[in-house]
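Re-run requested by the PI after the first attempt was lost when the workstation crashed. Everything re-entered from the original request form. Ligand of interest: guanosine-5'-monophosphate.
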Amino acid sequence: MLFLISAPSGSGKSTLVNRIRSLVKDLEFSISYTTRAPRGSERDGFEYHYISREQFQKMIEQGQFLEWAKVFGNYYGTAADSLENARINGKDLLLDIDVQGAAQVRDRVLDAVSIFVLPPNPEILATRLRSRSVAEGGGYPGEIDKRLAKAKEEIENYREYSYILVNDALDDAVECLAAIIAAERAKRRNGPVDIEAARIIETAESCRQNNSGARLRPVLAAFGLLDPAHA
Ligand code: 5GP
């Protein structure tokens, strides 16, 4: 199974994904290729494969990407063979990709399960972006504003995703994400459902986009994205 997770930069997605990677069995994580430089303590081959623009271009020409996109002026791409390798290893695969990449993958892998992570409001997002920027030795002036504007743009795509997580409490978001993965796996197995599995399915169902209205509305309103008729 293929799981896609997208979120505006600074939503706490990496922390969430790292917790899930250590918690959920038989789930591989695809390490993307990027032309951006490593940040802080990042290491080549762990967070990303860091390559030059020329190398990236060559990979595009050779058809080596399942998807790729330009994000904040840099290129990011998922190697097609990560999907093939997961399949060979009998594992599910988790991709942490932006909204453009997720749209490309959804077109190619029709049963991919997609999850959108939202920050609770722009103030919390700005605080997270600022502290990350300080921890990484400071960004460039205007970077936070640019990322906030981009976040608003990305959030508008939430309707394309099957599940919505509002990351206001990390433990709750981890529980929901683990439940989504377990529930989708149970659905594919189509076997009997015991009490524990039923509880997990219920948690996952509560994170479905069409059951998320009450949690979504205040977030959309805080980002100025709520149609006044629905406020
Ligand atoms: P960052 O530079 O903060 O690690 O990532 C910036 C954005 O690029 C994030 O939204 C992240 O999900 C996205 N991203 C990371 N890897 C890929 C990838 O392989 N493909 C696409 N389309 N986006 C990616």
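Saved to the shared folder this time. The radius of gyration is 18 Å.
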